Amino acid sequence: MKPFLAIIFCFLILGVDSQRWFQFMKEAGQGSRDMWRAYSDMREANWKNSDKYFHARGNYDAAKRGPGGAWAAKVISDAREGIQRFTGRGAADSRADQFANKWGRSGKDPNHFRPAGLPSKY
After folding, report:
1. What is the distance between the alpha carbons of residues 106 and 122, in angstroms, rounded to a whole number?
2. Where are the transmembrane segments (predicted)?
3. Which of 14, 26, 38, 93 has the fewest CB atoms within 10 Å, counting from its CB?
């Protein structure tokens, strides 16, 4: 019943038509896959000081999908940083990660964070 009410709310109050709603959800799914691909590439590369680059790249790729992709990138990034902060990872590192996340979502070039020598595959 709650999802039905949320959909009715979007249609009536927010003026979101079904086509835009489905487009948003499609973009969110694609953005989630972009984030997963960046995470997988980071694990595969296992390259020193590349963390910020992959944060920025995942957010950049997801945000290029549209509003749904940008939303997914923000939710995933915020959840990841929240979990890491909760488990005791440093606040300064978390702030730096969030800076890279915002950099990528804003459409700025993620290569700003690219470490020297990282293979061109990434």
Report:
1. 20
2. none
3. 14
